[in-house]
């Protein structure tokens, strides 16, 4: 989790590790997740995998689960963007996902995070 958050920057890695260890007096995956408040890498990976397999209802359920954990839309989109930088995909698919994320962020802030709007956007871009 720390390596994912640091994105190759050793100073940031040390800062995140120090914050987590001083706050909880131990350094675990859970303490890092609590201190940094970033959605789980596995949930983001599962969300993208489900979108690629065109299972829109399951993608919507995963997205609502991530939202119900208390993350705001900007944190979720930032987590998805960071994950996309790490995986190997065709450039066109990455651009399509980034377009989807921009549309999602704009639409959700306009719609005040109505989750039905998320489902329509997922269907629009990944049919």
TrEMBL record:
<protein>
    <submittedName>
        <fullName>Uncharacterized protein</fullName>
    </submittedName>
</protein>
<dbReference type="InterPro" id="IPR008921">
    <property type="entry name" value="DNA_pol3_clamp-load_cplx_C"/>
</dbReference>
<keyword id="KW-0812">Transmembrane</keyword>
<feature type="transmembrane region" description="Helical">
    <location>
        <begin position="30"/>
        <end position="52"/>
    </location>
</feature>
<dbReference type="GO" id="GO:0003677">
    <property type="term" value="F:DNA binding"/>
</dbReference>
<keyword id="KW-0472">Membrane</keyword>
<dbReference type="GO" id="GO:0006260">
    <property type="term" value="P:DNA replication"/>
</dbReference>
<keyword id="KW-1133">Transmembrane helix</keyword>
């Amino acid at each position: 989790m720390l390596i994912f958050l640091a994105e190759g920057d050793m100073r940031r890695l040390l800062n995140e590790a120090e914050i987590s260890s001083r706050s909880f007096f131990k350094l675990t995956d859970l303490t890092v997740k609590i201190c940094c408040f970033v959605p789980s890498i596995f949930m983001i990976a599962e969300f993208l995998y489900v979108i690629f397999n065109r299972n829109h209802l399951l993608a919507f359920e995963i997205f609502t689960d991530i939202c119900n954990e208390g993350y705001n839309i900007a944190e979720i989109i930032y987590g998805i963007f960071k994950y996309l930088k790490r995986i190997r995909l065709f450039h066109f698919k990455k651009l399509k996902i980034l377009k989807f994320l921009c549309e999602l962020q704009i639409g959700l802030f306009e719609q005040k995070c109505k989750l039905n709007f998320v489902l329509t956007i997922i269907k629009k871009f990944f049919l």
